[in-house]
Amino acid sequence: MRSLVTVLFLIGAGYGLLLVGVYLFQAKLIYFPTATVDATPAHAGLRFEEVWIPAGDQIRLHGWFVPANGAQLTALFLHGNGGNIAHRLDSLRIFNQLGLNTLIFDYRGYGRSSGTPSEAGTYADARAAWRHLVTTRRIDPERIIIFGRSLGGAVAVWLAEHTPARALIVESGFTSIPDLAAHHYPLLPSRWLSRYSYDSVARLANIRMPKLVVHSRDDEIVPFGQGWRLFEAAPQPKLFLQISGDHNRGFLQTGGRYVAGLHNFLKTLDAQTNR
Fold it and tell me: Is residue 69 located within the same domain as residue 137?
């Protein structure tokens, strides 16, 4: 009997230590930055301008401005939780082919940007990048498309709630961190443990600009149902683009249908402008 009590105690103590570790170190489960920027848009055959953006608290963000010939709209690209801007060249090429200027940057702690990532920090960084477009480059907010993929989708939703823009695109986005954690760690009290929110599903109800939600049924990281819930939570005007393939490369695996979906959404913006 005593040995059984000892075993149960050890199991309970181990589980308790696991909970403490998850609570204290959960940033390591959310942010996966890579420091080395080992490629530039030139590797994709694109012209670009290197930019440095002040984000307060002595934080400087590194990024690229990639112009497109005859562009009328500029995409503000908010990337996901892993790697850095060097890993998004395929998207930069697609956006350029669609006739979009693109500003892409690394959050604090990613690539060559200084600082340490955090939820509040990603929001501040997104606002600083938006301010760079509007104040430094004199781009009308009505000419800005806020684009976010994965974690960047949550940052994009926050930015769209707090700043004006022409439209919002959320690709492979989740409803919230507690929802995503509960899906991946069902044996843990994930909602209670979470110190991060990124509550996109609640914020979307407040966003009136045109919206495109993009998600794959094959997404192995963010369930398709969470992408659909984002779409359902968003008020009109809105569109949904279903793609195929995995979380990180679905946009490439879908191929022309993905590009056509983005193109059609951009055309709806033209139609709304010309009414």
Answer: yes
How sure is the predictor about 159, in pLDDT bands with cuts at 50, 70 and 90?
very high
- Name the packing angle between helices 89-97 and 256-273 (round to 10°): 50
Whether residue 58 sits in one domain with residue 81: yes
Question: Do 72 and 162 share a domain, yes or no?
Answer: yes
pTM, full prediction: 0.92
Average the pLDDT over 204-230 and give the result. Answer: 97
Annotated active-site residue 247? The verdict is: yes
- 3 state DSSP class of 227: helix
Same domain membership, residue 212 and residue 88: yes
Q: Can you list the alpha helix ranges (DSSP code H) found in 116-255?
A: 119-131, 151-162, 177-184, 190-193, 200-203, 224-233, 250-254
What average pLDDT is seen over the chain? 91
Exactly one of 150, 176, 200, 216 is catalytic; which is it? 150
Q: Count CA atoms within 13 Å of residue 65 on its CB side.
A: 16
At 59 the pLDDT is 96
Helix (H) or strand (E) holding 266: helix 256-273
Average pLDDT (228-238) is: 97
User: Which member of 87, 183, 247, 263 is catalytic?
Assistant: 247
Q: What is the pLDDT of residues 15-38, one digit of tens each?
A: 554 444 555 557 777 999 999 999
Containing structural domain, residue 25? 1-30
- Per-residue pLDDT of 168-203, as tens digits, reads 999 999 999 999 988 877 766 667 667 889 999 999
Per-residue tokens: 154: 């949550």
Smallest Cα–Cα separation from 110: which of 81, 130, 131, 151?
81
Do 107 and 21 belong to one domain? Answer: no
Catalytic site residue from 106, 125, 179, 219: 219
- CA 220, 226, 227: angle at the middle one, nearest 5? 90
Q: Which residues pair with residue 61 across a beta bridge? A: 53
